Amino acid sequence: MLCTRLTNANIVTMDPDRPADRELGIWRGRIVGLDEAVASLPAREVVDLQGATVLPGFIDSHVHLAWTGLKQNAPSVAPCERVQDVLAAVAQATSRTEAPGDRVDVMGYARCACARPTARTASPALWTWACAPGSATTGCRSAPSRSTPMAG
């Protein structure tokens, strides 16, 4: 018996002779077969992925290696506590551009480690965050919530 069988998926196999499959079987944390090899096997859990793409074998396929290089020369707003400080950092960055409209990267926005989502939407990029209750007593210097303006 399989531990899990993923069905109705777009499984990217990286095999030129068989580039995509629809079902994937997992037993004890390991992929044991695809499509016809697992379709008739019983499983403790069957998950219908409704067409979602699966990249088996990739570990943390979502990385931002480009940011490492960008951070080297970009000004940071991490120490900013007031709107005026952020605006000054952005103004300094724009003053170093060659032409109006040039791209400016500013780094350093970071939620504190104790932040928790306060409002969730379909896109995590649009979630709002705030420090967990009681965190101020542990020395947390709260980063402002995305939905709450900084103190002026």
Give an account of the 3D structure.
By secondary structure, the chain is α/β, with parallel strands linked by helices. Among the domains are: 2-54, Urease, subunit C, domain 1, CATH 2.30.40.10; 110-147, no CATH class. It is built from two helices and nine strands, in the order βββββββααββ. It has helices spanning 65-73, 83-95, and strands spanning 2-7, 10-12, 20-21, 24-27, 30-34, 43-48, 53-54, 115-119, 128-131. The N and C termini lie far apart (61 Å).
Topology:
Blueprint: E1 2-7, E2 10-12, E3 20-21, E4 24-27, E5 30-34, E6 43-48, E7 53-54, H1 65-73, H2 83-95, E8 115-119, E9 128-131
Parallel strand pairs: 1-6, 2-7
Antiparallel strand pairs: 1-4, 2-3, 4-5, 8-9
CATH T-level topology of the domain at 2-54: Urease, subunit C, domain 1
What do the pLDDT scores average to? 75
Helix proportion of residues, in percent? 10-25%
Specify the CATH architecture of the domain at 2-54.
Roll
Number of helices: 2
Order of helices and strands: EEEEEEEHHEE
Number of E strands: 9
How many angstroms separate the termini?
61 Å
CATH superfamily of the domain at 2-54: Urease, subunit C, domain 1
Assign the structural class, choosing from mainly alpha, mainly beta, alpha/beta, alpha+beta, or little secondary structure. Answer: alpha/beta
In short:
This protein has 152 residues and is of the alpha/beta class.
What descriptive keywords fit this protein?
alpha/beta, Urease, subunit C, domain 1, 4-stranded mixed beta sheet, 2 helices, 9 strands, 14% helix, elongated, disordered C terminus
